[in-house]
Amino acid sequence: MRRITFYIYWIICSFCLIGQSYGELSQTDVLVSEMTIIQQNPQQMIEAVAAGKERALLCGNCHGKNGNSVRDYIPNLASQNAAYLFNQFEKFANGERKDYVMSRLAKNLTREDRVNIALYFSQMQVEARDQPVASSAEGEKIYKGLCFTCHQQDGHGNGNYPRIAGQPYEYLKRTLNSFAGGNDRRANSPMAVIVKNLNEKQLLDVAAYVASMP
Ligand code: HEC
Ligand code: HEC
Prior knowledge:
The termini are far apart. This protein has ten helices and no strands. It is mostly helical and 214 residues long. Helix 2 packs across helix 6 (111-123), helix 4 (82-94) crosses helix 5 (100-107) and helix 7 crosses helix 10. The protein folds into two domains: 4-122, Cytochrome Bc1 Complex, Chain D, domain 2, CATH 1.10.760; 137-212, Cytochrome c-like domain (Cytochrome Bc1 Complex, Chain D, domain 2), CATH 1.10.760. It has helices at 2-39, 42-55, 60-63, 82-94, 100-107, 111-123, 137-151, 169-179, 191-195, 200-212. The longest helix is centred in the N-terminal third of the chain and has 38 residues, at 2-39. The structure holds heme C (2 copies). Residues 75, 142, 146-147, 149-151, 161-162, 164, 172, 175-176, 186, 189-191, 194, 206, 210 line the site of one heme C.
């Protein structure tokens, strides 16, 4: 009898585990793979980008109509990797990443909106902007010794590794400060362990170099 009870528990638990992993898969992963399928189909891509453009009208007030931001503390979305953009919507919506405006906006976007908007901005071209500081040779050394492994030599990243090249210096500075534990806006980011060993001056140097990258 005891043995039967044990087997019943065992079967129920197995179902729970299977259910849980399907549950996780049905979230972000499935949509990111759907997005990849759209990216490989030219016609679907045209439709998604057009739908994304329509839904992105409001975003243009801050991120610029073509994804080149209108203020130095706001990131460019143009040329950003679609998977990264999509994942950041998820993070703003579930509270993992915090920003007064973005956290509210992200919750109001449907999953389809998020896919289309991410694809739309990934297709826009990032433009060179005036940066308040010159590039830094020290920053370049840090970049080439450490950052390139994930963000690539050219700073364009890949998939869920964001493009950082040419982001506004002010945004980079603030973001690196958040990663370094200055506030909880991006708590638990994988970047925290990376910046832990850099001092304040090194963070400013690397921000200056990244801002200057085309
Ligand atoms: C009122 C200004 C404002 C509006 C409108 C706005 N954003 Fe943002 N957005 C910001 C700011 C500021 C940040 C940077 C937050 C931070 O420092 O973490 C940001 C960050 C983001 C990020 C993260 C980018 C990165 O490089 O990590 C994405 C993606 C994004 N916004 C998408 C959108 C979309 C899509 C819309 C329209 C539905 C939108 N935003 C509308 C101000 C705005
Ligand atoms: C091990 C891989 C890895 C390395 C090495 C790495 N990064 Fe990152 N970086 C990431 C990931 C992943 C993210 C997205 C973080 C998130 O979603 O919280 C990111 C995000 C960033 C962002 C925010 C981008 C945005 O649009 O908001 C900046 C800035 C950045 N990294 C700069 C750097 C710099 C500078 C270095 C070198 C000192 C570096 N990274 C090294 C993986 C890495």
